[in-house]
Amino acid sequence: MKAIERYVFFFGLGYHFFKLGSLLDSSFFFIVSIFLCVYLSLRDQLFLVLFMIMCLTFVYVTLIEQQNKSSLRPGEIQLDATIESKFKIDGDKMQFVSSYKDEKILVTYQIKTKAEKASFQKVKLGTSFTAVASLEQPSPNRNDFQFNYQTYLKRAGIHYIAKASNIELGSVKHPTFFQRVENLRHAIIQYIDRTFNSEITPYIAALLVGEKGLFDEQIFSQYQKLGVVHLLAISGLHVNLFVSLFYSVLLRFGITRETSRIILLFFNPCLCALSRF
Predict the structure, then answer these.
(1) In whole angstroms, what separates CA 109 from the centre of its chain?
(2) Which of 134, 151, 153, 230 has the least C-beta neighbours within 10 A?
(3) What is its main location (predicted)?
(4) What is the DSSP letter of 202?
């Protein structure tokens, strides 16, 4: 067995006992595996570096998980905050992420009128708002081995859902860089929705900025059942096509190859951010 294979084997064995065994046995096997990993690492500097990175990652993830707790309690609250991220309108339901007492919360609201929906569709991230809401914990999944919404939100640092009874919008207050990128992405989606034929609009939005919300639910469900929904997702091939096209355009305008490559270094992250790649 090669050194790296032994390294992975012993650490994996120890971690397995650490997760599944009793406290005494798991700790013993985990400590033994750590010593074996150190022994193997000392024989090679690369393994030593990898081992240190692994330990630091393990400690960091453990600390983050321990701090992922909430001090909030269920009840009615008065919100005076800003719309931070994950803004979404689905039919007459609206939701977004905001903060309350320095904790992330998911704000949900049922839109009452068409005029209200039209005004909310113009909302940008960073917009201030006031609301009266009921703070509740998300429900865990009722069936085993199915999607657990509570766990999903917890991994995003969200422990409570604020169900708003009314929302009053304010002005945009100094959006962050990422909020500006999301606002630009939202503006592109709205432009696509207004400009192109309704039959091709969902495909353009999906392949250009990774937005699948414009698809009809039945059509999107059929794609999922057929197992071809991945064709509507942004992939490395799409990014490569966009980059190649942009690179060709730069060369057509007489920009040198060296300068074009430097421009691409800034273009690629922007493209990935807009498409949520």
Answers:
(1) 21
(2) 230
(3) membrane
(4) H
